[in-house]
Amino acid sequence: MQATTHDDGLTIAGVTYQSRLLVGSGKYRDLAQTRAATLAAGADIITVAIRRVNIGQDPTAPNLLDVLPPSQFTILPNTAGCYTAADAVYTLQLARELLDGRKLVKLEVLGDEKTLFPHMPETLKAAEILVRDGFDVMVYCSDDPIQARLLESIGCVAVMPLASLIGSGMGIVNPWNLSLIIEQATVPVLVDAGVGTASDAAIAMELGCDGVLMNTAIAGAGDPLRMARAMKLAVQAGREARLAGRMPRKFAAAPSSPMAGRPA
Q1: What local confidence, expressed as pLDDT, does residue 260 receive?
Q2: Model pTM greater than 0.85?
């Protein structure tokens, strides 16, 4: 999905997208369910794990691009499963060839198989190489404001701190750190990893995130299509609440109805 005229779109690397909900393409029952859930979520940007999902690497296997064509969606290749900067860079160079030179990518370099926590030294190294090579890099990172600032200074077009561990569904475990990242950032900040249900997505948007990326929260739900619709609404509601500005918190009750003019 290319540029849109939506008043409150999400702009990344100069392109504006209508939806602030980004979704993954893994863990579904089949490609038909992948497409149905993606449509229910209203997503424009779809992440693809190049090491796990076929987008042309294997001409004999079902191709994700047959159900989510690049003419209708922005395919965002990611480096899920990479544990070194070298592997991540090679994977995204391969993806660029498969996607006719498209530059927008999602970088993630993992630290270990148990936590899937980002390996920040390798992430920074890979980001520098990819930016120099002309990629527009969206980057999965820890919820450390200093690391996020370094990634932005390298030239990443979006920072994507984890809310909690990938696939955990634990929601936002450190909203304070996330707020610090949002406050300092001049590029979009998107929560990546850990969202479990619609309220998690709404909270991320209320905190001021520019978007939310998720996969397991939808694909792992009892009814993925219904959860996809719920997530779409939650992201929209959280964004509206953020723009509206919440009422101040108070330590005393205040009546909802005016008291002026009432008999004593």
Answers
A1: 61
A2: yes
